[in-house]
Write a structure and sequence with these properties.
It is a single chain. The protein has about 325 residues and is of the alpha+beta class. It is built from 16 helices and five strands. It has three domains: about 5-45, no CATH class; about 55-220, no CATH class; about 230-330. The chain has a five-stranded mixed β-sheet with strand order 1-2-3-4-5, sandwiched between helices.
Length: about 325
């Protein structure tokens, strides 16, 4: 492996590690040829588990129709996308245009498709079986803006705004970064955002390299909920609203397949958020469950169970009120 292999393989923080290794060599007066030097960096990364693809390298490999692929609907420079699409709502177009004006190198991956990970522990524990009935890669991440920095990459997962989009945005993030996902090692490079104000989206993008992802995410989340209880209340409300509207929406459709998929995915995201968000909260673990992870896990599952839904089969069997009356008369 030579220096070109290191620099082109999508490794994160290679230049930082190289500088540290070089300082060690200087201080110890230990000499290495250039090839051995780069091999040493590579081996340290391998041993430490640091050999991972940067998020821009992963996303660059996703093929859209222009490259005879079906991974996403578009993947390339944001400037090209803005010139090609007329489907963006006003807020997204304004924010994306402002971001492009400040960073001409930004790329965008639109509607990136993903499978539901059957092996993820959280997906097994919440036991929402209907999600596994969806064929192919039913989850689609709406918009992923991504850019490569000097030593690190960053990505902004943008979800179109709706009343409960803040919850769905977190659900997409947790799906995108769960164990088994190609992005599992990129969780500290990704931030999820949704807003009805373009300035909020552009502000989040501008801070990708100046704030740690976790801190930036928490600052974004505080616009919508202050604690887990508020998050849970929003999630339960979103689930119930969808459950109430589903009969009228579905019976009005000639082909209800896509909408049923959308409902199932939304209920899955809500359940996942309530489970994972509870499990990653160390304060809850220590203050509520006295450090007992089993008790925390049981409560997290109970919280996810509070998401009400219509079953997959129920949604297919729904009939319009007029049809029900005709059946009763006959």
């Amino acid at each position: 492996m030579d220096i070109s292999d290191v620099m082109n393989s999508g490794l994160k923080n290679v230049s930082v590690l190289a500088g540290e290794c070089l300082m060690i060599c200087v201080k110890t007066r230990f000499c290495l040829c250039f090839s051995c030097f780069t091999n040493m960096i590579y081996m340290i990364l391998r041993i430490s588990g640091g050999v991972v693809m940067a998020i821009s390298s992963i996303l660059d490999q996703q093929l859209d129709q222009r490259r005879n692929g079906e991974d996403c609907s578009f993947n390339g420079y944001l400037e090209d996308y803005l010139n090609l699409t007329d489907d963006l709502d006003e807020v997204l177009r304004e924010s994306f245009t402002e971001i492009l004006a400040k960073d001409e190198n930004v790329k965008i991956c639109v509607n990136l498709k993903a499978e539901v990970n059957r092996n993820a522990i959280s997906n097994q524990i919440i036991r929402y079986k209907d999600i596994f009935k969806l064929a192919g890669k039913p989850i689609e991440y709406p918009y992923i803006l991504y850019v490569a920095g000097d030593t690190e990459d960053r990505a902004l997962l943008v979800v179109p705004y709706s009343k409960y989009s803040c919850i769905y945005a977190k659900g997409y993030y947790y799906c995108m970064t769960e164990p088994g996902s190609p992005f599992i090692d990129c969780k500290n490079e990704i931030v999820a955002v949704t807003s009805d104000k373009a300035s909020k989206i552009t502000d989040a993008y501008s801070k990708l390299f100046t704030m740690k992802a976790g801190a930036l995410q928490r600052s974004i989340d505080r616009d919508y909920f202050k604690n887990y209880d508020e998050l849970k209340a929003l999630a339960v409300e979103a689930a119930n609203m969808q459950k109430e509207e589903a009969p009228a929406v579905l019976t009005a459709l000639e082909d209800r397949t896509a909408q049923i998929y959308r409902y199932v995915i939304n209920w899955f995201l809500l359940k996942k958020v309530l489970y994972v968000q509870y499990m990653v909260n160390k304060n809850i673990l220590n203050t509520v469950h006295e450090g007992n992870i089993k008790k925390q896990r049981n409560q997290a599952k109970t919280n996810a169970d509070e998401i009400g839904f219509l079953s997959f089969s129920e949604m297919w069997r729904l009939t319009a009120p007029a049809e029900e009356e005709a059946e009763q008369e006959s």
